[in-house]
């Protein structure tokens, strides 16, 4: 067994770890004690829910608040927390508490999990992540619990507050409001909207960026990665909020019926949530086609590398945009913030984007075959939401056929791990080629 474990590289261990956690979660959620009426949930539904929780997505085939008991909801919450932080982060913290030595291979696994440049300082980073996560989720939980206490018993308000705080910080999108309503009833509530948006943004930046921001008071230095993530996040979020406000301003089913402040809060929430939280205050199915297409675009991009968010990541998008700009300008080098980007990084960004696009296109095509009778945009929206581990849906998820559910399960799993990580896990290590072929030319454009 030890020999088998030693033969696995970090990418394979990540895949096996997440898969094992999903199977354990599915088993627990399929137990009668996990549901409100003590009936056994079909295993496929339990597997779908467990995958969605571990992959911090939020797509559900059964309503979380009306279906699961307190035990089931706690299981989902634990799966979200472990899936968002990464099981290796928690394992590292437990090993440190027990005084056990963290091996170099385990540090490499942490490096893979957070997409870091090197394994150096991973143990210190893991400890900081846990402390920061606990503080942030606690503050968010207290604020939401106080707000919910005006509408429900205090014990329920506390549980609701912390459940939703953990869910949105980990960009999961699960909610307990019932009837697949998410946070629609709080569309113009500044306390809920601003708290949830803050948790989504912080969780989607990436732990490496947050760590650098914390150290900035001493170092006064930010890495190129952090600068790119912060600048692109601001640009994408502000642009999304403005566009949603414009597109939905006259839509009576969304912003049209709200007060001026409600319109701003509604646009703010929907501009933030595709990055990739999954909670919503506007009814997704009633959005204009322009907003739906914008949402698909944002879901595909996602959040920061090494964060709880999915998608191809904002840094990947930044490299692609800058590469196109450089080519159109006739420049040989790709430069961001006066730093030249290596060709290996450009190729990796292109590979990640094209792999993600290929997955979304294939899943959309297959869903249109297995689950006929819906508008095409619903298939595209569902596939992108699953790949980006977002959790937003136009209402297709509960109506998916068994094959359609399996397709979304696989897509969520690939989206959480990332196409490159999964690809490296199922293929052999790349070897140095003994020879190189002569160059060839192909006409482009």
Describe this structure in words.
Keywords: Cell membrane, Ion transport, Membrane, Potassium, Potassium transport, Transmembrane, Transmembrane helix, Transport. It is a multi-pass membrane protein. GO terms for molecular function: potassium:chloride symporter activity. This is Trk family potassium uptake protein. It is found in: Cell membrane. The longest helix is centred in the last third of the chain and has 28 residues. The mean pLDDT is 86. Strands 1-2 form a two-stranded antiparallel ribbon. Helices cover 63% and strands 1% of the residues. Helix 2 runs antiparallel to helix 5 and helix 8 runs antiparallel to helix 9. The protein is built from 19 helices and two strands. The chain has one domain. The radius of gyration is 22 Å and the shape is globular. With 445 residues, it is mainly α. A hairpin with a 2-residue loop joins strand 1 and strand 2.
């Amino acid at each position: 067994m030890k020999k088998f474990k030693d033969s696995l590289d970090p990418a394979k261990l990540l895949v096996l770890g997440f898969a094992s956690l999903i199977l354990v979660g599915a088993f627990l959620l399929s137990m009668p004690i996990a549901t409100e009426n003590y009936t056994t949930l079909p295993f496929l539904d339990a597997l779908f829910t467990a995958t969605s929780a571990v992959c911090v997505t939020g797509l559900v085939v059964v309503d979380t608040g009306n279906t699961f008991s307190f035990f089931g909801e706690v299981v989902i919450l634990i799966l979200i927390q472990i899936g968002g932080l990464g099981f290796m982060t928690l394992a590292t913290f437990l090993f440190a508490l027990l005084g056990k030595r963290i091996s170099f291979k385990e540090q490499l696994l942490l490096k893979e999990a957070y997409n870091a440049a090197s394994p150096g300082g991973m143990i210190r980073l893991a400890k900081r992540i846990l402390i920061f996560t606990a503080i942030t989720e606690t503050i968010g939980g207290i604020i939401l619990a106080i707000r919910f206490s005006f509408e429900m018993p205090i014990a329920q308000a506390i549980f609701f507050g912390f459940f939703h705080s953990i869910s949105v910080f980990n960009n999961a999108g699960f909610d307990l409001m019932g009837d697949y309503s998410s946070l629609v009833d709080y569309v113009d509530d500044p306390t809920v909207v601003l708290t949830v948006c803050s948790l989504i943004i912080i969780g989607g930046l990436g732990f490496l960026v947050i760590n650098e921001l914390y150290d900035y008071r001493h170092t006064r230095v930010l890495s190129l990665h952090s600068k790119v993530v912060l600048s692109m996040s601001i640009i994408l979020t502000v642009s999304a909020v403005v566009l949603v406000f414009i597109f939905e301003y006259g839509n009576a089913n969304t912003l049209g019926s709200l007060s001026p402040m409600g319109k701003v809060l509604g646009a703010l929430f929907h501009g933030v949530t595709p990055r990739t939280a999954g909670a919503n205050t506007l009814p997704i199915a009633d959005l204009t086609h322009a907003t739906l297409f914008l949402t698909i675009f944002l879901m595909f991009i996602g959040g920061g590398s090494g964060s709880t968010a999915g998608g191809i990541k904002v840094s990947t998008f930044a490299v692609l945009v800058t590469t196109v700009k450089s080519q159109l300008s006739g420049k040989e080098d790709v430069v961001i913030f006066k730093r030249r980007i290596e060709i290996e990084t450009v190729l990796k960004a292109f590979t990640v984007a094209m792999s993600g696009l290929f997955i979304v296109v294939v899943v959309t095509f297959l869903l249109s075959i297995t689950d006929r009778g819906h508008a095409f945009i619903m298939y595209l929206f569902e596939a992108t939401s699953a790949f980006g581990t977002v959790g937003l849906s136009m209402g297709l998820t509960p109506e998916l056929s068994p094959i359609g559910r399996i397709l979304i399960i696989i897509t969520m799993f690939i989206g959480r791990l990332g196409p490159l990580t999964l690809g490296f896990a199922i293929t052999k290590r790349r070897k140095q080629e003994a020879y190189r072929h002569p160059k060839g030319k192909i006409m482009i454009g």
